[in-house]
Design goal:
The protein has 724 residues and is α+β, with helices and mostly antiparallel strands. The protein is built from 15 helices and 30 strands. Helix 7 crosses helix 8 and helix 8 packs across helix 12.
Length: 724
């Protein structure tokens, strides 16, 4: 149970969970500490029942209908009375609305609210995720009606009070599969000043889609956009923040059509300092739609076939590369954190199943655009800060004192000569990363550096961006897919017009409103506890901006969780086809209960449970983040290379289990039959959610099927294929 005051989570034993469900709010009292040292609680009162529907599979056992929740944290099956199943059939995935909460001696009761379909239907994992995480996925009737009234193209009257940039060869540079184009760029050599005091540099234009021109403050489209707060990206599907007419049409900076934009026009010195900038509304005409790979190829060979096709724009791309090199100097001087990490891309077939998982490499074009966007974001933050207008900053605070101490202990234990100060600068982290990049355990060290940092949030209080080493930073460059960027555009427009922007009074669902109120109160308590802090009475405007920041930050996390959930399901489905096969991989995390290993060939992560490490006792060293054998001294730490066998896949739990192998043999004597393959669900003991064998009508038919599947897995394990 997570606490409102931010204290350590409270463990509620199974008997305390009988009358409550996941996401219920309760009042509890700590009664003892369990054997793991966790505070153990007793439920005193159920304060608030969650109204969120539950997703699961409809099953029938001994004539009784029930729904087994897809999210195992619910802990109990939902009983469905006669007539409550609607049109749903056995085995289908359904959405259930509770009609009776659980009790100490009674299961929760509900009725089928929606039938999503069969578990193997293409895209079912996304349908589950959007409901599981309460992601708004249908626009309101009012929103769609309003979007239909918008024009299909820029009208002559839209040119009023705008700078005409249609003759400037602005271009977009995005991924091959991009559909909405937020930003366009252009660069040319420039000089600031005259005579001996003249400074050479670059004029950099970053033009961003002017979404605020079409999405009016407090309109039906604005309400839906605020509710979503961000677009959510899944493999093969996007749930946009704005209706498609705007996101892929009227606001998207498509080539060779007029589009309205907000421009950050900058002068960048050869040393990478933005010495002057201005913002203005404009009309633009994108002269080309480039892809990252295409730009990288042109910059790599200006006489190659790609360059010949774009001969008229090659010079502009070289100018963009020139300003990028200048901005890179500034990044290095600031000491901004820049760890090399591997991101992956899931490639699916037409049925939504994984074809392959491949690394997403960042080439020079990615970095070029990133630096240009960072420069525009910094200018927008500076502009808002200088105007003293309220707004949302993108804040990334430095590590807490506790994390600094933990990092110091780790660096000392690993024999790294460098250390961090009490209030570290980002350059200290980058210096450690640079000094250790050639060590065999570099991945482990860089991982620990990243873990010591905090998450970035949206907030009206400007506390700088630690990772990027900026005193002020905000998000300006993606208003099609991020609501905070839309707010920043509105604030900038208001300042330019010598006016003041007021946040609209947007309706928030009751449960979400209560969560926001609790977060605001929690923030006040935390600030009051800071040494020397004096309680300040916040104005209604400041509270509104703070609530908007919390809402956008929370929905950003929600989008990330939903995306990760879908990717985890797809990876589990993918690895089920590879049960019993052997692969090489690297340890990416060590815990007290085992090792997480990422496979080289597939970029899939799975758990090697501590019981699979052989016949000795392993102790977890928290400082070194490693497991060490007491008898042999065998060490498993982040970066350790291992060979594994895929032993178990749990689709419902989104978990993949590995076992270590040497010379084709497991380190212990267990067989694959010792672990069930959780593709379906079968009879199990009530109250024990750790056991998830196959399940079906009356328990028999599906259990037999599960046994057949396990035998196939064993057959595969006898003739493993090794992939490296």
């Amino acid at each position: 149970m997570s606490r409102d005051d931010g204290g350590p989570d409270i463990y509620l034993p199974p008997n305390e969970m009988r009358a409550v469900l996941h996401k219920d709010r309760v009042k509890a009292r700590i009664v003892r500490s369990d054997r793991k040292g966790r505070p153990e609680g007793r439920v005193l009162e159920i304060v608030e029942r969650s109204t969120q529907p539950i997703i699961g599979r409809l099953l029938q056992e001994s004539g009784v209908w029930l729904v087994a929740p897809e999210d195992k944290r619910y802990g109990q099956d939902i009983l469905i009375p006669r007539g409550g199943t609607g049109n749903a059939k056995t085995g289908q995935v359904v959405v259930v609305q509770l009609t009776e909460p659980p009790a100490l001696f009674g299961q929760p009761v509900g009725r089928v609210q929606e039938v999503l379909g069969e578990v193997d239907d293409p895209g079912m994992e996304i349908e589950i995720a959007v409901r599981k995480y309460s992601v708004p996925h249908e626009f309101s009737v009012a929103c769609m009606a309003l979007s239909k009234t918008l024009p299909d193209a820029v009208r002559p009257q839209d040119h009023a009070h705008r700078v005409d940039l249609t003759d400037i060869p602005l271009v977009t540079i995005d991924g091959e599969d991009a559909r909405d184009f937020d930003d366009a760029v252009y660069c040319e050599p420039a000089t600031q000043g005259r005579g001996k005091s003249a400074v050479k540099g670059w004029r950099l234009l970053v033009a961003i889609a002017d979404v605020s021109h079409y999405v009016e403050n407090g309109s039906a489209i604005d309400i839906d956009a605020y509710d979503r707060a961000t677009s959510v990206y899944f493999p093969r599907r996007v749930i946009p923040m704005l209706p498609e007419k705007l996101s892929n049409g009227l606001c998207s900076l498509k080539p060779e059509v007029e589009r309205l934009c907000m421009v950050c026009d900058m002068f960048v010195t050869l040393d990478g300092e933005v010495s002057a900038y201005q913002f203005y509304s404009a009309v633009m005409w994108s002269h080309a739609r480039f892809t990252y790979n295409e730009v990288a190829a042109i910059l790599g060979n200006t006489r190659g076939p790609e360059a010949q096709k774009r001969k008229a724009l090659v010079g502009d791309l070289l100018n963009l590369h020139g300003v990028y090199e200048s901005l890179l100097k500034s990044r290095q001087r600031r000491g901004a954190v820049d760890f090399e990490t591997t991101e992956t891309q899931i490639v699916c077939d037409e049925n939504g199943r994984i074809e392959k998982i491949m690394p997403r490499t960042r080439n020079v074009a990615h970095k070029l655009i990133e630096e240009a966007m960072l420069a525009a974001n910094v200018c927008s933050a500076d502009f808002i800060a200088q105007s003293k207008h309220a707004g949302l900053f993108r804040v990334h605070e430095g590590p807490t004192a506790e994390k600094v101490e933990a990092l110091r202990a780790y660096l000392k234990a690993m024999g790294i000569g460098l250390n961090v100060s009490d209030t570290p600068k980002p350059g200290e982290f980058q210096a450690i990363a640079n000094a250790t990049k050639d060590r065999p355990d570099a991945a482990q060290i860089h991982s620990m550096l990243l873990r010591s940092m905090q998450q970035a949030i949206y907030t009206p209080g400007n506390n700088g961006h630690f990772g990027l080493a900026f005193d002020a930073y905000t998000h300006f460059t993606s208003p099609i897919r991020r609501y905070p960027d839309l707010l920043v555009h509105r604030v900038i427009k208001a300042v330019l017009a010598n006016a003041k922007y007021h946040l609209p009074v947007l309706p928030i669902p009751g449960e979400a409103h209560a969560k926001l109120a609790r977060r605001l109160e929690k923030g006040k308590v935390a600030k009051a506890l800071e040494p020397g802090a004096k309680p300040k009475k916040a104005s209604a405007e400041n509270l509104a901006w703070e609530a908007a920041g919390l809402h956008c930050s929370a929905n950003e996390r929600r989008a990330d969780e939903a995306s990760r959930d879908v990717e985890a399901w797809l990876k589990c489905k993918y690895m089920y086809e590879h049960l019993g096969e052997e692969y090489s991989g690297v340890v990416t995390s060590a815990t007290s209960f085992g090792l997480f290993v990422t496979l080289d060939a597939m970029y899939v992560e799975g758990l090697v449970h501590i019981t699979e490490l052989g016949g000795e006792y392993f102790r977890f060293d928290e400082v070194r983040q490693e497991l060490r054998g007491e008898r042999t001294g065998m060490r498993y730490a982040i970066g350790t290379r291992v060979d594994i066998q895929v032993s178990r896949v749990d689709l419902d739990g989104r978990k993949i289990d590995f076992r270590l192998v040497q010379n084709g043999q497991p380190l212990n004597s267990k067989t694959l039959l010792d672990k069930a393959v959780d593709t379906e669900r079968g009879p199990r003991q009530r109250g024990n959610r750790d056991q998830t064998p196959a399940r079906g009508k009356a328990g028999n038919a599906t259990s037999a099927k599960a046994q057949t599947v396990d035998k196939k897995a064993v057959a595969k394990s006898k003739t493993p294929r090794k992939r490296r």
